28 kDa heat- and acid-stable phosphoprotein-like isoform X2
Amino acid sequence: MPRGGKKGHKGRGKQFSNPEEIDRQMKAQRELEANGGVEKEEEKSSGSDDSSSEEEDVNKKKSGVEGLIEIENPNRISQKSKKVTELDVNAPKELSRREREEIEKQKAKERYMKLHLEGKTDQARADLARLAIIKKQREDAQKKRDGLKKEAEDSKSKR
């Protein structure tokens, strides 16, 4: 791969900006910054009025085609900022679907464990039956060992 900057697209020539165009854009940028600073100061001074928030929505600069076309979309929700005094902290928080499912899953697991400890689930019954069989096998093995020990002692005492 050759080094050096990116090459232009195949057969196209390079495009250079016109100096007059650059000057015009810079002047427009300066004017915008100068006007923008004045508007921000006016908004700060009138920010305490309730009616000013409505005016801000109307005077808000619309980007792109928004300023040219009136949109009547019932599904479009405009973002409105709430004031701290309007927020209700004590209102119940709505859980997302994932959070609800996670809570339901935890509750179901707790119910199952409670029933399992009481021995009411199929798995608990199977476990208890298996434990009973193992216990019986161990008791039989212990009896057999005890019997072998007695026989060994009896055989030693006869000698």
